[in-house]
Structure formats: structure tokens, C-alpha cells
Design goal:
The structure holds two protein chains of two kinds. Chain A is α+β, with helices and mostly antiparallel strands. Helices cover about 20% and strands about 30% of the residues of chain A. Chain B is elongated and about 80 Å long. Classes of the chains: A alpha+beta, B mainly alpha.
Chain lengths: ~375, ~150
């Protein structure tokens, strides 16, 4: 075409046909380019879960859970029970289509209600026990070396940077030398506090509740999870080596234990702790945490403003499929990139498939939103504000 | 019977010598599928390369704009497979379009300018004095490789 004329290899007789083929080919590419441009301007994203094959990597919705976080990945939902699942994304969508397919042995439901809320994945966790006492762990500086004092035992830190991830400088207590004789230091070194963000030449990691360093997928994942760049501590290979490598953190991941949230609506601070969102009541504990990390701003408003729809039986295809559309423009300004879907039924159900399709309507408002995001991204990359 | 055998033998001999498969349709010999596939593949590769270059440019200007939605490794591997396939068919029919760099061709200079643009963009966070050094060093290395690969004799 441009670089070389491929038609020269063809016998004269079929060259004209080949020219027609070239025209069709160019039209196909132009159509593909148009569709790709459209998908870029008005993105869509699908998430699904196949209950008959719950452990496949193709499932993009998080494993569904019931009350008390019991697994519902087999799709058996009892009457009055609420199924919850999560989808993590970054784009601003206009609506969500929920599709549900039932197994043949499932009773036909009278009414299935679906509701959607938006926040950060860990902010959806149930409230934990209020932390109303001072921190159990203290950072001591003995002879210039930092130690962690916890449960009547003293453990040396691997470095000053690690110590400062537990408490800010002003909260580090000076310790006398004799404390080392009273509490002989443990052999094991202490690394970074859970929830700390660290970086090396390869990338940024979050120290999880499993004490592992979880690499964060990319900058967009980092920002969509609400983390702050100022909180990232550059560390050496030796410091990072103390923590084993964990699973990669992507859009659908929960913020790790130790992450601090601020509820904008109630001004309450929370810390993620073993699958719960524990309110921080004690001022000393709060000051210590705020000295080492910036809280992620979320809002409990999201729990009061879910968007809902009732699933309707589809006429086509002939089967046990139900669907409904939920406009989510009202959730657009809420912080967080995680969507929680709750499904309530008044009868027992045996689910086969559940899918969520996020759409952006092709209108001027979404187009200008795309341009604004493009401009913001451009300024973020090229450093002009 | 003998005549049929002779015809089939003749056709196989044609396939062996040219790689082309001829199908008789009414009065004329129409399709030579291998040459047609080869020519079609070349055009598909060419258009795919242009599309890929566009995607790479968009990704270089605004990192993440494409890669967040599409794994760029996939189209890259598809193009590689198409190139390998075209090489295979090309060898069968004895046709090829060898890579002959032509300094006078505008396409070469468009390619070089595009590379320089991508390099400048990727080194934009470096000091302004370092950028021309990085770009210059890259092209010097490319030139040395060029001389090594395309030296005469």
C-alpha cells in the first residue's frame, strides 16, 4: 500500500480483485479505529462471576459473600439473605446493567432487588471494635538505635526509616541503656508497619497485614486506591528484603491493614484491622498514626445513598435470565473506585451467572469529562500545574 | 484414468514449483490462494503496523491511556505472528520484500523523526542538556548497528 505494493506478486488477472480487497481492508481498519476511538471516549467495562465455576481466573467480580462474610461463591442464596460482591474500576461511568442467570433447579423469584454503592474497598468493611486505648507498641531510641517495645519485649528495627513508619520522630521515646538488660532485645528484626507504602527502583509496595510487600500494579491503581505519593518511603533492598513479596495489588484490591481512613461526613478516623474498619478514639493513637500516614478521605454518605433497581425477567433469550439498568451518575462525585453490589431476594435462589456492565453514555457531558481527564493527565505527566 | 493421473501430477508439480494452488472454476484458472494470502497478509501487516505506531504514540504522550484498557503485548504478538506467517508463505511462493533501507525515501525519515520524538518524550524529565545527548547517543548506537548489519560483502 504505502511501504510496498503487494499486488506485484499476483497474476495480472486477479490484481483488480485484490484492489477491491484492499479497499475493504482499509474500510475495516477505519471502522476498527472509529470503534476504538469511541471506546476510548465513552468507555465500558464488564465484570462477571460464574457460580458453576467459581475458582476460575475469568471471574472478574470478587468472590460473593453473604452476611458475616460467609462465601456464596456456589450461588446458593437463602431467602432474606443479602449477597455482596465488589468490582474495582477507575473510569467515570453513567450506568450499570446488571444481568443475572439462574440455574434450572432454582425457584423463580418474585422480586430481586439490586443496589450499588461506591467507596473504597476497605471502607465497605464492617465497623470494628473502637480503639480507645493508647498504642500497644512504642518506639524507643536506645543509644541512637530504634527498638519496638511490644508485649513486654524489645525488638530492634532494621533501620530508622522502618522505625519512623511506626511513629513520627516526636513520638519516639528516649530509652536508657539499662532497658536492654531488663528486656534483652529479640533476634528478629522489625520491618515496616502494616499499611506502610515503600518504594525501590522497581516500584511501590504496600506492606500488608500478612507482613508481605505487595507490589502496586501501576500509578493509576495507586491513585484509584486513594494512596498518597507523599506517604511513599524510598527504602533499600535490605530493608525491603525483610518482607516477603506478596500478591500484586490491582483495582479490585482492598487497602491493607494499617491503612487510615477519614470519614468526611462524620470526621471520624478509622484504621483497617483484620477485616474490620476500627474507629480510632484514642487521641494518642490517632496522633501517632497521623504522624506516619495521610488518611484516605472517604464518606459514609455513600451508605445512605445507594442506587437501586429491581431485576426484570428477560423475554429473550428463553431462559432464566433477569436484568435491570441502574443510572450511577449520582455516585460519580463520591470518592473511591470500588462498587459494592448487594442482591436481595425474598425466595431461595440458585445463581448461575452474575454480570455487571458499566457504560458511559455518548453525550457532551461525558465528552467534556474525558477532555478534562485528558488535560489533568497531561499536566500530571508533564509537570505543569 | 491415465489422463486424470497425468492432470493431478501436473497440478502437484505446479504447486511444488510455485507454491500456488490453482482451482479450476468454469473456464478460467482463478485463485492462486498462496500469492493472494501473501499479498493480503502484507497489507494487513502494513496497516497493523501503522495502527500500532499510532497506539504507541498515544501511549507515549499520555502513559496509561491505552495500556489501562488494552494489553499492548497482545497486538504486538499478533503482528509478530503475521510477519512470521507472511515469511513462511513468501518462501513457499518464492516472493519477498526484503528490508532495503533507503536513505532518500521520505518514509525512512518519517520513521527516524518518529523515533526521535518518542525518545525526546520519554526523556523529558531529564535535564534539558541531557536530552539531546540521550537522543544523539541512541542514534549513534543505531547507526553502528546499521553499519554492522547492512555492510556490503
Amino acid at each position: 500500500m504505502i511501504l510496498f505494493d503487494a499486488a506485484t506478486v499476483l497474476p495480472e488477472k486477479i490484481r483488480i480483485r485484490f484492489r477491491w480487497f484492499q479497499v475493504v481492508l482499509v474500510l475495516v481498519f477505519l471502522f476498527a479505529a472509529f470503534m476504538s476511538g469511541y471506546a476510548l471516549l465513552f468507555p465500558f467495562q464488564n465484570f462477571s462471576f460464574n457460580f458453576s465455576n467459581p475458582d476460575t481466573a475469568k471471574n472478574t467480580l470478587e468472590d460473593p459473600v453473604g452476611p458475616d462474610l460467609t462465601s456464596l461463591k456456589k450461588g446458593r442464596v437463602k431467602a432474606g439473605e443479602t449477597l455482596r460482591t465488589y468490582a474495582g474500576t477507575t473510569a467515570s461511568f453513567s450506568s450499570v446493567r446488571v444481568d443475572l442467570a439462574l440455574e434450572k433447579d432454582s425457584p423463580l423469584p418474585d422480586m430481586i432487588t439490586v443496589s450499588l454503592r461506591r467507596s473504597f474497598r476497605s471502607f465497605f468493611l464492617p465497623a470494628g471494635k473502637p480503639l480507645d486505648s493508647a498504642p500497644d507498641q512504642r518506639v524507643l531510641a536506645v543509644d541512637g538505635s530504634p527498638y519496638l517495645f511490644s508485649q513486654q519485649s524489645l525488638s530492634p528495627f532494621i533501620s530508622d526509616t522502618a522505625a519512623l513508619s511506626w511513629a513520627p520522630k516526636e513520638k519516639v521515646l528516649p530509652g536508657k541503656n539499662d532497658i536492654l538488660t531488663i528486656f534483652p532485645p529479640q533476634d528478629t528484626l522489625v520491618g515496616f508497619r502494616h499499611g506502610t507504602l515503600v518504594s525501590d527502583a522497581q516500584g511501590v509496595y504496600a506492606i500488608g497485614g500478612d507482613d508481605k510487600a505487595h507490589p502496586i500494579g501501576n500509578t493509576t491503581v495507586f491513585e484509584s486506591l486513594g494512596f498518597h505519593w507523599n506517604d511513599v518511603r524510598p527504602v533499600s533492598e535490605e530493608e525491603l528484603g525483610l518482607h516477603k513479596r506478596g500478591k500484586i495489588i490491582l483495582f479490585d484490591a482492598a487497602q491493607p491493614d494499617g491503612t487510615v481512613f477519614l470519614d468526611r461526613a462524620t470526621k471520624q478516623y478509622y484504621v483497617i484491622d483484620s477485616g474490620t474498619k476500627a474507629p480510632i478514639v484514642n487521641k494518642d493513637r490517632l496522633d501517632t498514626l497521623l504522624g506516619v500516614t495521610t488518611p484516605i478521605e472517604a464518606t459514609s454518605d455513600t451508605f445512605r445513598r445507594p442506587v437501586k433497581c429491581v431485576l426484570n425477567k428477560n423475554i429473550l433469550p428463553f431462559g432464566r435470565t433477569y436484568s435491570c439498568d441502574i443510572p450511577i451518575e449520582s455516585l460519580r462525585n463520591l470518592p473511591g473506585g470500588s462498587f459494592e453490589l448487594s442482591l436481595d431476594s425474598v425466595r431461595d435462589l440458585h445463581l448461575a451467572d452474575l454480570s455487571l456492565s458499566f457504560h458511559t453514555s455518548p453525550d457532551w457531558q461525558n465528552f467534556s469529562l474525558f477532555l478534562t481527564q485528558l488535560k489533568e493527565r497531561f499536566l500530571a505527566v508533564y509537570g505543569k500545574k | 484414468m491415465n489422463r486424470q493421473k497425468k492432470t493431478i501430477r501436473k497440478r502437484f508439480s505446479t504447486i511444488r514449483s510455485t507454491g500456488a494452488v490453482f482451482v479450476k472454476n468454469s473456464r478460467e484458472w482463478i485463485v492462486s490462494m498462496f500469492p493472494f494470502s501473501y499479498a493480503a497478509l502484507l497489507d494487513i501487516i502494513e496497516l497493523s503496523l501503522f495502527a500500532f505506531a499510532l497506539i504507541i504514540t498515544a501511549e507515549a504522550v499520555l502513559p496509561g491511556i491505552i495500556s489501562l484498557r488494552l494489553n499492548l503485548a497482545k497486538p504486538f504478538f499478533v503482528i509478530l505472528i503475521l510477519i512470521a506467517l507472511s515469511g513462511l508463505i513468501g518462501r513457499k511462493i518464492g516472493a519477498s520484500f526484503p528490508f532495503v533501507p533507503d536513505k532518500k525515501s521520505p518514509v525512512t525519515w518519517i520513521g527516524i523523526s518518529w523515533l526521535a520524538f518518542l525518545l525526546t518524550l520519554s526523556s523529558i524529565k531529564f535535564s534539558p542538556f541531557l536530552v539531546p545527548i540521550i537522543v544523539g547517543a541512541f542514534f549513534l548506537i543505531i547507526r553502528l548497528f546499521w553499519k554492522l548489519l547492512f555492510r556490503k560483502g
